[in-house]
Write a structure and sequence with these properties.
This protein is α/β, with parallel strands linked by helices. Helices cover 53% and strands 14% of the residues. Helix 7 packs across helix 8 and helix 7 packs antiparallel against helix 11. The structure holds NADP nicotinamide-adenine-dinucleotide phosphate (NAP).
């Protein structure tokens, strides 16, 4: 497919790295150096002019922040062709709002996460009834290289934004704290990082390959009056589980309020 990416920041660049392996890409960013950087990496062609950037595209990916929507729409709207599909990454911005700004019904919302760069992302997609099934099938095929695709009703997009869009940032924060714990106990930062990564990889394998609930796996590690239950007791005293749920909930509420 021929795809134009508008906005070449963190997510635009992550999508470009992976999609360029199978598709022809064009880039536009009001900081031309960001578009040129992606072109220099061999991912596609950078354009200074929005009309040129859009003219050959079948799919237009909008990878800008929601606060830039109005300005971007005024630039893009008059250069959009009738058959082009606009895929918006904007958190909390409804299909109805996007249809209004771009004067087209060919709008699909997408919520990826940063792991798309390695083809291990979660990609939530939603559309309204104006999008044909064959277009949805084409988008599924096009984006499968990025990770697992989930078509969802639009009312689930805020929850997905929090869980899997923002989720990696929450996870990285916790991982960083685990590495710091190792440093506090006398390991070098590098050694602690290696130990924690392997521990996490092993834990993920256990979760994937054993049928037990995470709670049951936890009981297998915690022996009576042992060290693990001492740590778990502290975890409950510090209300870590409630804090984790509230962290995701804050992101969910923020996304819900953006409309
Ligand atoms: N990063 C993630 O992990 C992630 C995950 C899920 C969804 N998303 C969504 O992806 C979108 C982009 O996020 P990001 O993290 O990639 O943002 P970003 O790093 O700020 O990249 C956006 C880029 O678009 C540029 N831009 C702004 N207005 C423009 C316009 N009118 N025309 C052309 N370029 C314009 C920005 O320039 P300025 O710096 O001057 O504004 C910036 O270079 C957001 O809507 C976000 O909700 C991101």
């Amino acid at each position: 497919m021929r795809i134009t990416i508008i906005g070449c920041g963190n997510m635009g660049a992550a999508l470009a790295a992976r999609l360029s392996q199978e598709h022809q890409l064009f880039f536009y960013d009001h900081h031309i150096e960001k578009a040129e950087h992606l072109a220099q990496n061999g991912y596609g062609t950078a354009h200074k002019n929005i009309k040129e950037a859009l003219q050959n595209a079948e799919i237009v990916i909008l990878a800008i922040k929601p606060q830039n929507l109005k300005q971007a729409a005024s630039l893009i709207k008059d250069n959009l062709q009738e058959n082009q599909l606009v895929v918006s990454l904007l958190a909390g911005t409804l299909i109805e709002t996007l249809q209004h700004y771009f004067s087209t019904n060919h709008i699909v919302r997408m919520m990826p996460n940063l792991a798309v760069i390695h083809g291990e992302g979660i990609i939530g997609l939603c559309s309204d009834e104006k999008i044909k099934n064959e277009d949805k099938e084409q988008l599924t095929k096009t984006f499968e290289t990025l990770g697992k695709i989930y078509w969802l009703p639009e009312e689930k997009m805020d929850a997905l934004t929090a869980l899997t869009g923002s989720g990696p940032a929450f996870f990285f924060t916790i991982v960083e704290a685990m590495i710091d714990a190792g440093i506090a106990m006398g390991f070098t930062a590098k050694m602690s990082q290696g130990l924690i990564y392997q521990m996490l990889q092993g834990s993920l394998t256990l979760l994937e390959k054993t049928p037990q609930h995470p709670g049951e796996l936890r009981w297998q590690i915690a022996s009576p009056q042992g060290t693990t239950i001492a740590g778990l007791k502290k975890l409950e005293e510090l209300a870590v589980r409630g804090s984790v749920i509230n962290t995701f909930w804050a992101a969910y509420e923020h996304s819900s309020k953006m409309k």
